[in-house]
């Protein structure tokens, strides 16, 4: 009895992982495998120096150079597309801010999951179809995210699954053959665990900096109010004293007021500059803290690793503790000088009146 011809699904199934072919390649004996599966299989035969086909056991020496089977690759994509699009979508249209299903045609539905291997986001129905197309192994999925493009290697267009400690960057497995060959590498999840140990420390430092700067801000605001109040009191006292003096010294009164305002302006100007710098730094620190808080909840390791480096660096901050408002500048010296002038003037006038009386 003749054997039944294999179906298209069987032809494009990898006999190693029992899943649909990913980056299909065909050996010299005519059997097809996933590029990653046959590469790993032959890596285990490296010590023997002879490489074999897992199905027919035909051997090859030296190790064959594998090329992508574009016909099988296209067939796999067609079968995936046909099966997924055959599923009837549920009426849950994506709204503003929602991640759209990449498979839906026409009206886009809200995606519920994103496959980190297929790099595709799926609505509820298409996610079920995706799982039916991958019965051999469980793909890694996460809640729907619009950051899937960050997971693709721009050079090789492969998923970023490895963290290079040497260059502190995320790479794909093909990068390990090229520019990252021989580098110290770990899986992306392991890389995140390493970085996670420093995450809390970085966040605590930023939060502590915020508290310190907010305290300094309040103290500086209080000092400014005291300075303004003191200056206003000095102006009022000076005006009262000079009002009691004869009109001949009005020019001196104006000069004293200008001196007070100049001192006030110089101190307030410096304080306002410091206020602005403190407010800007606090705003930046709060933004960093919010980003870290949001980042701590993400399930996407790659997005975490690519974003952590930039948001964890504490912005440069000049030490402002040595610069403060001269709270002791109360303008009492000005008041005393004016009072002394008034007393001297009164005494002088009294003496002159007495002289006038005596001469009279």
UniProtKB/TrEMBL annotation:
InterPro entries reported in the protein's UniProt record: E3_ubiq-ligase_TRIM/RNF, TRIM8/14/16/25/29/45/65_CC, Znf_B-box, Znf_RING, Znf_RING_CS
Residue limits of the B box-type domain? 148-188
Q: Which residues form the RING-type domain?
A: 14-57
**Keywords attached to this entry:** Coiled coil, Metal-binding, Zinc, Zinc-finger
Write one Gene Ontology MF term. Answer: zinc ion binding
User: Which CDD domains is this protein grouped with?
Assistant: Bbox2_TRIM16-like (cd19769)
Coiled-coil intervals: 203-298
Judging by the UniProt lineage, the source's domain of life is: Eukaryota
Question: What is the recorded name of this protein?
Answer: E3 ubiquitin-protein ligase TRIM47-like
Q: Identify the species of origin.
A: Clupea harengus (Atlantic herring)
Q: Which gene encodes it?
A: LOC122130437
């Amino acid at each position: 009895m003749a054997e039944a011809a294999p179906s298209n699904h069987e032809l494009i199934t990898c006999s190693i992982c029992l899943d649909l072919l990913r980056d299909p390649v065909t050996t010299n004996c005519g059997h097809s495998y996933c590029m990653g599966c046959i590469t790993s299989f032959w890596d285990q035969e490296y010590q023997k120096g002879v490489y074999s086909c897992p199905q027919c056991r035909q051997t090859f020496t030296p190790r064959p150079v594998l090329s992508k089977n574009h016909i099988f690759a296209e067939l796999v994509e067609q079968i995936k597309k046909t099966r997924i699009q055959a599923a009837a979508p549920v009426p849950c249209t994506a709204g503003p801010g929602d991640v759209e299903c990449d498979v839906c045609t026409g009206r886009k539905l809200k995606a519920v999951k994103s496959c980190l291997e297929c790099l595709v986001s799926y609505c509820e129905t298409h996610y079920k179809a995706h799982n039916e197309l991958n019965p051999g192994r469980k793909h890694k999925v996460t809640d729907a995210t619009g950051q899937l493009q960050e997971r693709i290697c721009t050079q090789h267009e492969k998923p970023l699954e490895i963290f290079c400690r040497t260059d502190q960057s995320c790479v794909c497995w093909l990068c390990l053959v090229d520019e990252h060959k021989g580098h110290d590498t770990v899986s992306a999840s392991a890389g995140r665990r390493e970085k996670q140990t420093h995450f809390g420390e970085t966040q605590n430092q930023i939060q502590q900096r915020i508290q310190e700067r907010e305290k300094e801000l309040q103290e500086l605001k209080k000092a400014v109010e005291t300075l303004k109040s003191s200056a206003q009191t000095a102006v009022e006292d000076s005006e009262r004293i000079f009002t009691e003096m004869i009109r001949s010294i009005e020019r001196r009164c104006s000069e004293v007021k200008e001196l007070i305002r100049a001192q006030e302006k110089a101190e307030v100007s410096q304080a306002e500059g410091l206020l602005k710098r403190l407010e800007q730094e606090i705003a930046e620190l709060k933004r960093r803290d919010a980003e870290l808080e949001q980042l701590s909840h993400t399930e996407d390791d790659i997005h975490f690793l690519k974003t952590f480096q930039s948001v964890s660096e504490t912005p440069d901050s000049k030490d402002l503790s040595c610069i403060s408002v001269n709270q002791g500048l109360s303008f009492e010296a000005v008041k005393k000088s004016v009072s002394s002038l008034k007393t001297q003037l009164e005494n002088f006038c009294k003496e002159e009146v007495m002289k006038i009386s005596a001469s009279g």
